[in-house]
Design a protein that fits this description.
The protein contains five helices and two strands, in the order βααααβα. By secondary structure, the protein is an all-alpha fold.
Amino acid sequence: MASRRGRPAIGSSQQGVPARPTPRAPQRAAGGGRQLPPYTRPALAPSLLAAVVLLACVAIIDASAFVFARWGVTVLALIILVFAVRGRSWWAAALMAAVAVCWNPLVVVPIPGQVWAALQIVAAALFVVVGLAVKVPRETDAAGS
């Protein structure tokens, strides 16, 4: 009985062992078949989120809801601080520590409203720059998981 093309013969076992082992392909990106870069940018998403929060909350600096924005910015700055330390970007770690201290809602730094508005915009730009600049090697990323 002849076997059908690409399928086992009729009446044969469906759990057969393949004739040849399939070769393992090198790890490639999902899109265009390119190799993955040796680093990742894990701080990019939280930094963009922090920049959106900072820019959106410029209007509510004098309101009581601004405390929630300060909590969010502080937590996101600490998350990015961890990624900066993992990527050994010490300048970014120092800047994120300074942002976490200034936006800390528990120990309030007394800064007037117009200066806060300017600092919100500067900090949003800083978050974007740090998010783009912090690169964590893939070996460190795989070892940490």
